[in-house]
Design brief:
This protein is of the alpha+beta class. It contains 3 helices and 4 strands, in the order E-H-E-H-E-H-E. Strands 1-4-2-3 form a 4-stranded mixed β-sheet.
Length: about 130
């Protein structure tokens, strides 16, 4: 059986992700299984970086926003984007971040950052964004 992981702590000299009020951060490297809200195992180091940043700045509150590409129905994408943001929320709360500091939203395919014509564009549009509220 796997041993429980100790909570990540910042090592001396290690700089966390910079979370600034009013800024958004796209969590590149946080990925999900196809058409599901299940985080892939390769997302762990990126989520750990977010966790460390939140641990280092205990007063910060963030909105976790899920986005999808245009493939699929509007209702499906809306639901999927919300559940993916919820998966990130759950991951952080299970590791000690207060749920009061985190809010969740799903935007579906409504706020693309690239075109949905190319694979690269669709990949860029499927993302989790952190918006620092305070």
């Amino acid at each position: 059986p796997a041993m429980p992981q100790p909570s990540p702590r910042l090592s001396p000299g290690e700089s966390p992700l910079l979370l600034e009020k009013g800024k958004s951060l796209i969590l590149k490297g946080v990925n999900f299984e196809m058409n599901r809200a299940a985080l892939t195992s390769d997302s762990e180091p990126f989520l750990t970086a977010v966790l460390r940043a939140l641990l280092a700045s205990p007063d910060i509150e963030v909105l976790i926003v899920g986005h999808t590409d245009l493939a699929g129905s509007r209702d499906f994408n809306q639901s999927l984007s919300f559940h993916r943001a919820q998966a990130v929320f759950t991951w952080l709360v299970k590791r000690g971040i207060s749920a009061k500091r985190l809010m969740v939203a799903g935007k579906g395919a409504d706020q693309p950052i690239a075109d949905n014509v190319t694979v690269q564009g669709r990949t860029a549009n499927r993302r989790i964004e952190l918006r620092v509220l305070k």
